[in-house]
Amino acid sequence: MENDVNYLIDALFDMIDSAKSMPMARDKCVIIREDALDIIDEIRGKLPVELKKAQDLIRAREEYVENAKKEAEKIRRQADIDAKTIVGESEITRIAREKAKELARRSGEQANSMISVANEYTDDALRRTEEAIQMALEEIRTSRARFQAISNEKLRALRAKLEEQGGGDRKF
Q1: Whole-prediction pTM value?
Q2: Across the strands, what pairs with 20?
């Protein structure tokens, strides 16, 4: 599955959407409690996996940034070495220094660009993960509220039926 949490939320939604409506109450339905609770338990179990994926993305971003810094430092050192080996006439030395400065400037720009791309990618991935988790949580809350409303409605209907049958003095 591409995204187990979304799949489970879809399954819960389909369960509720395809459930039989209550007589005289089209906005209420009957679902199998154990099946719904099983799906919710699976969602709870999968959320830590989604959070671990987000943490792995952050770790990968940090490694990427660290490698970019190392690469920039390697380029700078090479530029320094190149500048020191070019010794001689003042024109050759001047050209070497300009080249070293240019290499250092470009490596700094490249490192900044790589860091910026990594930051944007990580931020986008974390934002999408946060949105998926938020949607899952909202769906769970909505499903729970519907479930409670239906359960309460069934209980009231059962009590009313018992009272009609003369059993109004019994409690359950």
Answers
A1: 0.38
A2: 30
